[in-house]
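Hi, here's the filled form for the chain we discussed.

Project: internal
Contact: R.S.
Residues: 187
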Amino acid sequence: MANKEKVIEILDGNQNQIERLIGKKIDLWLDYVLFSGLWWMGLALSILPWIIWFFFRKRGSTDRLLYIAFYVMTISVLLDIIGDQIGLWHYRFHVIPVLPTYFPWDVTLMPLAVIVLLQVKPHVNPWLKAIFFALLASYVGEPVFDWLGVYVPKNWRYTYSVPIQIAIYMSAHYLSIRNNYAQLSNE
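And the returned structure, exactly as it came back:
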């Protein structure tokens, strides 16, 4: 087993290489991505759907829906970072260059798709909605972003996403029907 100083040296060297590569990534982003058509599309997809949702949302459920949206964002970002870091896929044309995930997908499109499906026809079987969501995200969303050149599946097939998308939707549905929230108090 290597001694502590050697391990620290190796880890610090690796971190320095990562920082240099991120610096190069930012330079490339500034030169080729920022203000490109796909960057503007990503920016619009990050903001406009939220504005539209704000006007058409079910007002009495806003807090609960935003709670669910934040949950879906968290899961989406986490899984996207893991997939990117272990080389299953990567993204080009980032809205924000230092994030390994595609911001519009994780922070807008995924959570909004889930909360809109939760709002629309709430008495429809959630498994049907989960399957619809998974098929839409996996066989429409991913291929469109792949076709645009934003998403690059390297060691990933669209089909692999289906059970994950179903699990995300069903867990969000489960959280959306919970009523066990205690009142906060100053005690």
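Let me know if anything looks off before we file it.
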